[in-house]
Specification:
Elements: E1 11-13, H1 15-24, E2 27-32, H2 38-49, E3 52-55, H3 56-61, E4 62-63, E5 67-68, H4 71-82, E6 87-90, H5 97-100, E7 106-110, H6 114-128, H7 146-153, H8 155-170, E8 175-179, H9 182-192
Parallel strand pairs: 1-8, 2-6, 2-7, 3-6, 7-8
Antiparallel strand pairs: 4-5
Helix pairs in contact: 1-9
């Protein structure tokens, strides 16, 4: 895969190389837009390799009733969680890349087309309507608001650059896998023996 030239280049790797890295990784970071499949991928990899599954939504950001923890408390919680030896962390939040990326062995960027992400949030809402999904904090039943829909629809244009900047600043040559389709995600899971 192409690697950006320059001092702070992101070292993108292909699926086969990434699968080899994931097999031996102690700490994996999974980022991308809501609805793209970050949580599903993370949970499958966690089960396959016995890694602790950390959801930023569930374990860091949200409190019951869709109330957010303060930024300082969120950062403290992330600092505690990344101190563990073996984990896979699902969640984007570029403002904490400075502490999460250096601690990770590999970063997986689930960069699906927006139509896939929109379908993901709508189908998730239909599946969990009135209930809290496993990767969300207790007391936060599934919902889709216009604001959230707009966030997903404009994510690539408005937020992807922040992921790129964060990786350029903090990855330091760590491997970064970018998954751009469900087929690529299936290929990775098949290579890892984590497809089911």
């Amino acid at each position: 895969m192409d690697t950006k030239s320059g001092l702070n280049a992101i070292r993108y790797v292909g699926i086969a190389e990434a699968a080899g890295k994931v097999r031996h990784a102690q700490r994996i970071m999974v980022v991308g837009c809501s609805g793209g499949g970050k949580s599903t991928l993370s949970q499958k990899v966690a089960r396959r390799f016995g890694l602790a599954y950390i959801s930023i939504d569930r374990d860091v950001v949200w409190l019951p009733g869709w109330k957010q923890r303060g930024r300082d408390e969120q950062r403290r919680r992330i600092e505690e969680l990344i101190g563990q030896e073996r984990w896979i962390m699902d969640g984007t939040n570029p403002s904490t890349f400075d502490i999460r990326v250096p601690r990770s062995d590999i970063v997986i960027w689930v960069r699906m087309p927006r139509r896939v992400c929109v379908w993901g949030i709508l189908s998730r809402w239909a599946r969990y309507i009135g209930r809290t999904r496993p990767e969300m904090a207790p007391g936060c039943p599934e919902r889709v608001s216009w604001e959230f829909f707009r966030f997903v629809w404009t994510f690539e244009r408005r937020f992807a650059w922040r992921i790129v900047e964060g990786l350029e600043a903090h990855a330091g040559g760590k491997p970064v896998l970018m998954l751009k389709s469900r087929a690529e995600m299936r290929d990775l899971l098949d290579l890892l023996g984590a497809g089911a």
